[in-house]
Amino acid sequence: MVHIGNSWDALLADQFSAPYYLQLREFLKAEYRAGAVFPPPGDIFNALKATPYEKVKVVLLGQDPYHGEGQAHGMCFSVRKGVALPPSLKNIYKELERELGIPPAAHGCLQKWAEEGVLLLNTVLTVRQGAPASHRGKGWEKLTDRIITLLDERPEPLVFLLWGSHARAKKELIKNPRHLILESAHPSPLSAHSGFFGCGHFIKANEFLKEPIDWSLE
User: Beta partners for 209?
Assistant: First the structure.
């Protein structure tokens, strides 16, 4: 069974034993046997491993993992050091520099953000190589919706960053008025100029939080 190694284990134990998850597990076994699936099995829950429930300050929602070889490692928008920066991440860095004067990092690994309290959560946690959205509707959404609901129940105010229509659709799960919801267009080159650039979300998040995030990556 799944072992995350922190507070998420107890919080999600009922999900990992639920029929939908056991069915998802069988689907994934077949998929990994049949061909390339990302991220590697040991990286699927890296976002939860890096940011325990009680440490979360910001929830950044992505869609499904990058579907190219060597890109996905279990954190939305992030790639390991040495991997070329994806276009959406380049645009995130541009907005970060515009807002806070932080120059773009030479790498795309957002692990430091995760350790700062930014939960880098995709709503679907696996994908077939070269086939975006290929694992949607298989059960991941039930698990990640539960994660969002658990975070909504936190008494401490959190920031939810919802970039793009897919992430914004999850707004209905966030019912607690103490949290801050920040919405914009997706940072993809196709939509970044339609509201992501100039959104001010990094500044707004830090103004809202008692303990601001250090967004630098170097």
Answer: none
